[in-house]
């Protein structure tokens, strides 16, 4: 979410930019001629009043009978973040999700909040300023989430085992650079430990040729609960939030600009029109399907990538220490992390088709198991039968439509304003 999806780490950034653009679109475009329709984002000094959580029946009644400043399609981390940001800026906001909140990518991550060590490596090696900015932004979000939601997030030490002496200064410098980019918002500073300490902290680690390890800190979080907490906070501030509601058509006014969507209740099959001055497409891997509802001729931009994780018994890892394999057989990284008295291992990065319920393949599961064996003691038998469960999530990697080089894949967010004023 990176892993995945680490899209939660970018939720606040996406929310801020899209909510700001929503206010800009509503106020500054000439198709809204009535001054009474103009919306001004609050200055931040207004008192925010929280209401009791309304039942779903009231949320549906609101969707059917009211019009909105902003309609957000997609109830994952990004959509929920957009809803909270827009509502607290003074925009009347609605959020819909065709399945359940956080049921897609936002619950299928590596459960980490991190800037991406490998992206910092690419930024330095390739002198890529965009990669550097992405890492810096993610580390800023990491610090914010650790501070604002301590009940859902926690610091986690992660060990990088080293089996060649020349790699000791290489990884040490790399992790110190990671600390430096985080600045005073770093969780804890990285440090080097010798072979004996490494085996004490991670007894199942392979001993042969082990030189020591670098330990650095990142954040760990309950991704699904974080998304739900944000959505619930949005509706307590007044947003209309409903799950199992699907957008089946984008409505447009006489000028060809988006003015709402036709919605369908997936439980009852009932359909109705919901009017809104601005639509935000926050559907992640399903971005192109909503974009094509708006304009069937528009080129696709989503390059979907499957990230698979497996769950192993808790004895495979220490209770409070993770492991990072920085160089797998195909050049990717594998995390090996404690999670709720079990062990998570992953992730893969395989091109895939966008499906509603992606499933992990046997090939991906066996790949993760094989990579695990390379770092565990040979006395430890890693068996296929030890896999308690597995899941696959889809990374919504995209070709930036704002750049001429359509082959360049972005792992951070991209905000695009379509000709009809929809924000994908």
From TrEMBL:
Stretches of the chain forming a coiled coil according to its record: none
Cofactor field: FAD
Domain named FAD dependent oxidoreductase: residues: 69-401
Keyword Protein transport: no
Keywords recorded for this protein, A-Z: FAD, Flavoprotein, Oxidoreductase
PROSITE patterns: FAD_G3PDH_1 (PS00977)
Pfam entry (one): DAO
Oxidoreductase recorded as keyword: yes
An example Gene Ontology molecular-function term: glycerol-3-phosphate dehydrogenase (quinone) activity
Catalysed reactions, as listed in the record: a quinone + sn-glycerol 3-phosphate = dihydroxyacetone phosphate + a quinol
EC annotation from Swiss-Prot or TrEMBL: 1.1.5.3
Biological-process GO terms, alphabetical: glycerol-3-phosphate metabolic process
Gene Ontology cellular component annotations, sorted alphabetically: mitochondrion
InterPro entries hit by this protein: FAD-dep_OxRdtase (IPR006076), FAD/NAD-bd_sf (IPR036188), G3P_DH_FAD-dep (IPR000447)
Domain of life assignment: Eukaryota
PANTHER family listed in its UniProt record: GLYCEROL-3-PHOSPHATE DEHYDROGENASE, GLYCEROL-3-PHOSPHATE DEHYDROGENASE, MITOCHONDRIAL
Similarity field: Belongs to the FAD-dependent glycerol-3-phosphate dehydrogenase family.
Protein's name according to its UniProt entry: Glycerol-3-phosphate dehydrogenase
